[in-house]
Predict the structure.
Amino acid sequence: MSTVYSIKDIERLSGIKAHTLRIWEKRYGIIKPKRTQTNIRYFLDEDLKQILNIALLNKNGLKISKIAKLDVNELSAELGKIDQNQNDLDEVEAFNLAVLELNEGQCKRIFDRVIQRIGFENSIEEFIYPLLDRLSMLWISGSLKPVHESFVQTMIKNRVSYEIECIPYFEGHKTKFAIYLPENEDHELSMLFLNYILKSRGGEVINLGSSIKAEDLISACQIFKPDFTFTIINNSLRDDSLQVYVDFLSLHLPRVTHLYSGFQFVKQSIILKDNCKYVESLNAVQEYL
């Protein structure tokens, strides 16, 4: 069953303004959206793929008037030329298309090219996070299938895990970090990336994973003895108030500095003890440390 996209969905995913899409339709006939009985435009999977291809060609210098005259074979040939010239490839559009087609090999090739050009950390911050933000709008609206979200998230997590394993072992004194997620929080990619950042700077990191209860965190810290803990809390806690939660950890782990991030700390105006600190982002964690 094909997914149905509104013109706003297409605008968000392709980066092409709705006004431009309407010009492409009326002036060049290059896209042919379907219409409801009330004359509202909508698009299907094949329309989205076509628009992504057109956007890719157009951003690489081919005029819309020329693209409109290409048949299917000529369109494929022009796309092949762009793919061969990696320097001119618009990775965002190409990656989006590869995600839609569940083309893991193509996704990895594009990601590798970005890493080679700007480095791994910059690739996550400047390419992957903005791309996920764009895709997430469509996942939230139901315009993309959950399998696409699972596919791209799993692929990126695997790559970050691989990069963590490749970091050389650092001899000497290490600052120790315990990172974790409480129940009802899903920020695994962010925690993996923080794991990479801390370990690459010589830190010793234990990633306790998700759904960690306060009592279990205390037990782990008594064994591992970290200098810092870090977590993200965007959703309300199920059993306790957030104020009670942070005060409990501060009391039972007084020699640990607890770093917290997430929307709930701003929403609830949480008061933090001396051994606790709120940080706005992963970059703020780096700056603080």
Observations:
- The mean pLDDT is 84.
